């Protein structure tokens, strides 16, 4: 496609230059013939044979020029579209100027057949006529050239004006692209720059808003247990030491609140660390089935305490996969803890592992209540809590966000589905 386009450009340029040379050769040849036949009775008595020979030679020259412009050596010359347009404008302007001069001369010759004798006898008139003809030709050339180039100049002025508007009104505004030359490419580059800078500015704003939201949420989640701890410490200062039972109860509550604080701070630190651009994973090649089997086995007693049974369905064949073991264990732990918190008592938690196409899929499902499709879309958002209040101290709202981020770092994915009160999380890890 590009070669064909370049061939067409070379052909057009060759035709234009060839036609220009053709006209120039005709004019020069005609001048030579005039000089040769000056003494034979004037201009109109030039033999038709000489004129035919002149035209044939000019046509041969025209053909040679076209062939020259389509040779391999010429094709290697890098001519951009603007250069071609300027060359085209100059050639067209010259051709039109020459044609106008020739037509004018022909018209004068028809009006005054003996003009050549008059000029031979009047040197001053001859010189002035030549200068007038030159000025006339130059005037025609400039008029046509300015007319052709003025369109590009207007477009450049239009781009300049639009760039100033972008500067005043902000990035995101685009400029109308006209044509397919380098000016149009410049315009497209300005548009791309404007759009990309708008995206970057919006991204920076989103980051700033997310940071402010994070600070607000963290402040709230830290303040609630901290206020509780301070309150119970104040109560202990007043009368807690007099009653051993009250003292133990207060200490137990303070211990629970401080553990919640510690867990929240750890999860916040982990989430922040996972979102750093320079984070690196420590990959190991492990048999994923054994890892899942072992981890679920460790959690079975904890889940059984809450009346929850575990159903395991692990694919028998060995499936080796490159993962950061510590982080994938964190993912599985978060999902198992999540299942423990939100499962209906005396129900079953299912854990499945199988390979599908070029991926390993681990699914964890449990029966839950009071959840709808709208909740599913928000489960992976930071600090999202299903109870719509931020007073639940058993959850930081970061667990599933951490899970999603770890899966992204592994070039994997996590999905969630709901069917008849059974919520199922699917971890999808690529086989490397």
Q: Can you tell me about this structure?
A:
This protein is α+β, with helices and mostly antiparallel strands and 432 residues long. It folds into three domains: 2-169, no CATH class; 184-274, Signal transduction histidine kinase, dimerisation/phosphotransfer (DHp) domain (Helix Hairpins, Orthogonal Bundle); 284-430, 2-Layer Sandwich (Heat Shock Protein 90). Helices cover 67% and strands 11% of the residues. It contains twelve helices and seven strands. It has helices spanning 2-36, 48-69, 72-75, 81-111, 115-121, 123-169, 182-239, 244-274, 288-305, 325-342, 373-378, 399-409; strands at 284-287, 309-314, 320-323, 348-356, 359-367, 413-419, 422-430. The chain has a five-stranded mixed beta sheet with strand order 2-4-5-7-6, covered by helices on one side. Helix 6 runs parallel beside helix 7 (182-239). Mean pLDDT is 78; it is low at 40-44.
Quick overview of this protein structure:
One of its GO terms (cellular component) is plasma membrane. With 432 residues, the protein is of the alpha+beta class.
Key features of this structure:
Helix Hairpins, alpha+beta, Heat Shock Protein 90
Please render the helix and strand layout as text.
Layout: H1 2-36, H2 48-69, H3 72-75, H4 81-111, H5 115-121, H6 123-169, H7 182-239, H8 244-274, E1 284-287, H9 288-305, E2 309-314, E3 320-323, H10 325-342, E4 348-356, E5 359-367, H11 373-378, H12 399-409, E6 413-419, E7 422-430
Parallel strand pairs: 2-4
Antiparallel strand pairs: 1-3, 4-5, 5-7, 6-7
Helix pairs in contact: 1-2, 1-4, 4-6, 5-6, 6-7, 7-8, 8-12, 9-10, 10-12
């Amino acid at each position: 496609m590009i070669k064909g386009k370049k061939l067409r450009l070379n052909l057009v340029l060759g035709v234009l230059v060839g036609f220009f040379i053709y006209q120039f050769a005709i004019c020069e040849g005609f001048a030579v013939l005039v000089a040769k036949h000056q003494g034979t009775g004037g201009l109109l008595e030039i033999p038709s044979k000489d004129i035919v020979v002149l035209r044939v030679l000019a046509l041969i020259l025209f053909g040679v020029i076209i062939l020259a412009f389509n040779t391999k050596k010429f094709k290697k010359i890098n001519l951009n579209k603007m250069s071609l347009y300027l060359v085209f404008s100059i050639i067209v302007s010259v051709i039109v100027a020459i044609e106008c001069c020739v037509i004018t001369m022909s018209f004068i010759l028809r009006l005054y057949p003996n003009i050549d004798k008059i000029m031979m006898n009047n040197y001053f008139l001859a010189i002035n006529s030549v200068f007038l003809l030159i000025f006339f030709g130059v005037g025609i050339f400039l008029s046509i050239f300015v007319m052709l180039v003025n369109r590009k100049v207007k477009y450049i002025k239009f781009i300049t004006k639009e760039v100033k508007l972008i500067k005043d009104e902000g990035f995101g505004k685009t400029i109308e692209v006209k044509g397919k030359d380098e000016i149009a490419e410049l315009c497209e580059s300005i548009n791309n720059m404007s759009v990309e800078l708008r995206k970057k500015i919006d991204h920076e704003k989103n980051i700033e808003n997310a940071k402010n939201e994070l600070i607000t949420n963290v402040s709230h989640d830290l303040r609630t247990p901290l206020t509780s701890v301070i309150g119970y410490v104040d109560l202990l200062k007043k009368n807690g030491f007099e009653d051993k039972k009250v003292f133990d109860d207060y200490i137990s509550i303070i211990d629970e609140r401080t553990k919640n604080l510690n867990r929240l701070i750890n999860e916040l630190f982990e989430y922040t660390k996972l979102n750093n651009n320079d984070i690196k994973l420590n990959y190991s090649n492990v048999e994923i089935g054994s890892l899942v089997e072992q981890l679920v086995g460790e959690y079975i007693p904890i889940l059984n305490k809450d009346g929850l049974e575990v159903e395991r369905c692990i694919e028998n064949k060995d499936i080796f996969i490159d993962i950061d073991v510590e982080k994938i264990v964190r993912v599985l732990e978060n999902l198992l803890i999540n299942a423990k918190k939100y499962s209906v008592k005396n129900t079953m938690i299912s854990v499945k592992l199988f390979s599908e196409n070029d991926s390993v899929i681990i699914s964890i499902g449990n029966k839950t209540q009071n959840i709808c499709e709208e909740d599913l879309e928000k489960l992976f958002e930071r600090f999202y809590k299903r109870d719509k209040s931020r007073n639940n101290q058993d959850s930081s709202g970061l667990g599933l966000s951490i899970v999603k981020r770890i899966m992204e770092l592994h070039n994997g994915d996590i999905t969630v589905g709901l069917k008849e009160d059974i919520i199922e999380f699917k971890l999808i890890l690529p086989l490397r």
